[in-house]
Design goal:
This protein is an alpha/beta fold and about 375 residues long. The chain is built from twelve helices and 14 strands. The chain folds into three domains: about 45 residues, 434 Repressor (Amino-terminal Domain), CATH 1.10.260; about 130 residues, Response regulator (Rossmann fold, 3-Layer(aba) Sandwich), CATH 3.40.50.2300; about 130 residues, Rossmann fold, CATH 3.40.50.2300. The strands form three sheets. The chain has a six-stranded parallel β-sheet with strand order 2-1-3-4-5-13, with helices on both faces. α9 links the parallel β6 and β7. The N and C termini lie far apart (about 85 Å).
């Protein structure tokens, strides 16, 4: 019969006084080995026999040893903590991406701190200063959370930063960025409504933050021979309430234009508000007015009717953002050197050179057809 590696049951370790943090010295004393042996076992380094390794781990468990993460972090000049800075948690889009980023970082043994700036740049600056004093390893900053001038200041000081979901499809001031192709998102919304046969189309947009969504939408209509008159554009602030108010404006009896047969809201939250107003007016969605949003927040699939929308791949955004940030942290920024200049052809046909830019990753959106859009009744 094969003998156990332990010929005898190890002796019970002497009790450690209450409140005392168990150290490798305590384990070494109980196991009858050198401190260096305990250190090698716990770190997985060095050559240690299997019997000795089991003996050390037994006493570590019995004594209730917990690794001193602070000491480890200080020795590596890292805290394994990432800050995620957001403009709001009132919009369901942000909790969804928070969960995705936290899950990915947790799998890499990082913890995540969440900071809500409430869209207040001064508060964002204050929070950043506090986080800097806590030795946070890096920052993922969501769009409209902070003043870009403040972000630039910290980035140029060597702070690892990645911008995520900013509205402009370019990397401002050379900071690594992951964002959605919002221009394409606007195109997809217009293409869907045009394919259904809509010609009287209105838009609810949060300007100027969501300008690219509007431009992609407007350009696609123009290419189909349709103009988007100013009277069919209503402004919102990405909230449900503003979507309701904007839809009231678009459907006002004082409008000189005929009622639209379709409304594109540049985020789902405003689309939900618009849908509520349409239903309050005794109209039907989509029989009287089709509504399409943008984001694909969880609640959109559970409305009556479920909302057709342009989906933002949140998990993909989270993966790309964390990858860019951890590359900065783990390579000391070497993985984020600006890309070399590239020649491109300008509008006049002359070769031009783009300025050096940091990594920019555009995530493609996609159409999710549900039951809030249909062909117009008059078609």
């Amino acid at each position: 019969m094969k003998e156990s590696r332990f010929q005898q049951q190890p002796a019970q370790p002497a009790a450690v006084r209450k409140g005392h943090m168990v150290t490798i010295y305590d384990i070494a004393k109980a196991a009858g080995v050198a401190k260096s042996t305990v250190a090698n076992v716990l770190s997985g380094k060095g050559k240690v026999s299997e019997a000795t390794r089991e003996r050390v781990l037994y006493y570590a468990r019995e004594l209730g040893y917990r690794p001193n993460l602070l000491a480890r972090n200080l020795s590596q000049h890292r805290t394994f903590t990432i800050a995620l800075i957001l403009p709001t948690i009132a919009n369901p889009f942000y909790p969804e991406i928070m969960e995705a980023i936290e899950s990915i970082l947790r799998q890499r043994d990082y913890q995540t701190l969440f900071c809500n700036t409430h869209g207040d740049f001064a508060l964002g600056r204050q929070q950043m200063e506090r986080l800097m004093s806590r030795w946070v390893d890096g920052y993922i900053i969501m769009g409209s959370s902070m003043d870009i001038a403040d972000i630039t200041h910290y980035f140029h000081q060597g702070v690892p930063i990645v911008l995520c979901d900013w509205q402009e499809n370019e990397s401002p001031v050379g900071i690594p960025q992951v964002t959605v192709d919002f221009y394409r998102a606007g195109q997809l919304a217009a293409e869907h409504l045009l394919a259904l046969g809509h010609r009287r189309i209105a838009v609810i947009v949060d300007e100027p933050q969501q300008h690219l969504r509007l431009e992609g939408f407007r350009t696609t209509l123009q290419q189909a021979g349709l103009e988007l008159p100013p009277a069919r554009i209503a402004l919102g602030d990405s909230s449900l309430e503003s979507g309701y108010a904007a839809a009231r404006q678009l459907l006002s009896p004082d409008q000189e234009l005929a009622l639209p047969t379709a409304i594109f809201a540049t985020n789902d939250w405003m689309a939900l508000g618009a849908m509520e107003l349409v239903l309050d007016r005794g109209l039907r969605v989509p029989e009287d007015i089709s509504i399409i949003g943008l984001d694909d927040i969880v609640v959109s699939a559970h409305l009556r009717p479920p909302l057709t929308t342009i989906a933002i791949p949140k998990t993909r955004l989270a993966q790309e953002a964390t990858e860019l940030l951890l590359t900065q942290i783990e390579t000391g920024g070497e993985g984020q050197r600006p890309e070399s200049s590239a020649a491109r052809e300008g509008a006049d046909g002359a070769a031009q050179h783009e300025e050096e830019t940091a990594p920019l990753r555009l995530v493609p959106p996609y159409l999710v057809v549900r039951q809030s859009t249909a062909a117009p009744a008059s078609s």
